[in-house]
Design brief:
By secondary structure, the chain is of the alpha+beta class. The protein has 8 helices and 8 strands, in the order βααβββααααββββαα. It folds into 3 domains: about 1-90, no CATH class; about 105-230, no CATH class; about 235-295, no CATH class. It has helices at about 20-50, 60-70, 105-135, 155-175, 190-210, 215-230, 270-280, 285-295; strands spanning about 1-5, 90, 95, 100, 235-240, 250-255, 260, 270. β7 and β8 (about 270) form a beta hairpin. The two termini are about 50 Å apart.
């Protein structure tokens, strides 16, 4: 662990190990900006007082007293002291000889490599759900008012976005490393696994690159997102609001396929319908009734 006393260090690992360090410097930056604004305002007042010092010798002392009260440290109203720089230790990244930079610490490098592996497993689980192994994706009809053709499920949209991100990273790294262009692949589980396999093979070299923080944080963010989506209970969470069909409260829940279901009457909604039919028309009475219903349940 190291302590930096000049400014946020470029040697600090960009991973979660230094979250407290980054938060401390972000708070310092905010406080320092506010301090500079205060000093500028006081300095402007002092300059105006100096410009307004009257030529009358009897009045001048009062004007100078007001000016000195602002700019002299021993007088009330002086310029405030700047905020103290944080003295939070940070974890340094490993030195990279080719670039002369420190990037990821060993622990965060291991986390990112493990996340690449787990992303493949989690995505495969979600894909199985979307293919009909759980929830409404098994063939149950989901009514919708959409006039355009919807995607098979929110899970499909998520996996498509994941593949798009991974494919972009693969393409960019192949160009940077001078590797052959990525093969043309149709979107799907096989293409996703092949892209993940390539990125895992190249992970150490990618993480040695000073431009890798965005990649590493993105992989960890996707891992967390997929973990949230693959919780074991088919009902992921309760959703607030009144069912637009039966008008009951405390009965809406999100299922593993992303659709919202009423446990009382069975009404199914996609996210857009939930926002339109439930959230946008909710009043304070819905909040009060929901709280009361949950307390009684």
């Amino acid at each position: 662990m190291m302590v930096n006393t000049i400014g946020p260090s470029e040697d600090a690992c960009p991973g979660a190990c230094n979250r407290r360090y980054r938060d401390a410097w972000a708070a310092y930056t905010t406080a320092h900006t506010a301090w500079r604004s205060t000093c500028a305002a006081l300095s402007g007042t002092a300059a105006q007082l100096l410009a307004d010092v009257p030529e009358d010798e009897d009045l001048a002392p009062d004007a100078y007293d007001a000016l000195f009260a602002i700019v002299l440290p021993e007088e009330p109203g002086r310029l405030p002291d700047p905020p103290d720089e944080p003295e939070v230790p940070f974890t340094a990244g490993e030195a990279v000889t080719a670039s002369g930079a420190n990037v990821w610490c060993p622990r965060c490098r291991r986390r990112i490599r493990a996340a690449l592996v787990e992303i493949g497993d989690l995505a495969a689980t979600l894909e199985a759900w979307a293919d009909g192994h759980r929830g409404a994706a098994s063939g149950e009809h989901i009514p919708t008012r959409r006039t355009t053709a919807p995607s098979p499920s929110p899970i499909t949209d998520m996996l498509d976005a994941l593949y798009g991100m991974l494919a972009d990273v693969e393409r960019q790294w192949r160009e940077h490393a001078g590797h052959p262009p990525r093969p043309g692949r149709s979107r799907g589980g096989d293409a996703r696994q092949r892209t993940l396999a390539y990125l895992l093979e190249q992970a150490d070299r990618i993480l040695d690159n000073p431009g890798s923080p965005r990649f590493g944080r993105g992989i960890l963010a996707w891992q967390a997102r997929l973990l949230r989506a693959t919780k074991s209970d088919p009902v992921v969470r309760r959703r607030p609001g009144r069912c637009p069909r039966c008008t009951w409260v405390n009965v809406l829940q999100t299922r593993d396929d992303g659709h919202i279901e009423c446990r009382n009457c069975g009404r199914l909604m996609n996210e857009d319908e939930y926002q339109d039919d439930v959230v946008s028309v909710a009043g304070f009475d819905v909040v009060d009734e929901t709280i009361a219903a949950r307390a009684a349940s």
